[in-house]
Amino acid sequence: MKTDDFDYYLPEELIAQTPISKRDSSRLMVVDKTTGEISHHVFSDIVNFLNKGDVLVLNDTKVMPARLFGVKEDTLAHIEVLLLKNIKDDIWSCLVRPGKRVKEGTIISFGEGILKAKCISVKEEGIREFEFIYDGIFYEILDKLGTMPLPPYIKEKLEDKDRYQTVYAKNIGSAAAPTAGLHFTKELLDKISKKGVIICYVTLHVGLGTFRPVTVEDVTNHKMHSEYYEMDKKTADTLNKAKEEGRKIISVGTTSVRVLETVMNKYNKFTECNGWTDIFIYPGYKFMAVDNLITNFHLPKSTLIMLVSALASKEIILSAYKEAVKEKYRFFSFGDSMFIK
Q: N or C: which end of the chain has fewer CB within 10 A?
């Protein structure tokens, strides 16, 4: 299976640079995963495609203001640090630019020394491990000094940083937003709940894989980075009961899919657990947990377009993307939405 098989034509002007004024007024393309039939709606119409007893699974991760701009203590050279993964205590795996300037022992200062980072290990692909040194509460300092880690294809400044968080974001730790959830408002979630749809939550802290293109020719040679996930007992019990009774499990976003499929692959049922997953889903994968998916429009040749192509088919997905380009849908993180039913 070739990476180029998942390429498609996308005019640059269709890459959404800013969030739409009202979250649930984005467009919604509904795609039948069996027939390929397509219909066009507004996202608030999603309630019409959900039924009583369905379980809607959302990722409640919260994005850290993980992008820090500092200077090397010795030379005052400017360094950009993106926090990716908390290894333990105050030690973090980070993406650094320019990486060649940061060696083991390098100390970077942020906010005139309010926060310092000492490089303790040099890894591949511009990644470094740092020990952070500070007084006080780390996340409060990060909130003060850090900026939202918007993807590289977004060139506009984000005026309201809450727009890169879901309205239900709770567990801080992500390097990127689970963007399929950005379309929901509290009012829409209430409406969905009142219809008898059961809403539950998992956590997956989105990591480096989000920023990393597939560069290998053969899809199967791509190496996924691992991401931390959690599932609590209440969610596990809810999902097990739904499976037993033949009710649908609908994932909000590819991040929720990765948690659900990881847990089912590991335990053959849903259970209270946490850990690290590097699951890579592409066509040929047999879904054990997820029936339907609410998702955004993904980058060409990305692991995410491969995942959605596994749930429907590559032909159906690429046909839907062609239609989305023709109808001038907005693409990527701040773009429009797709429901694969």
A: N
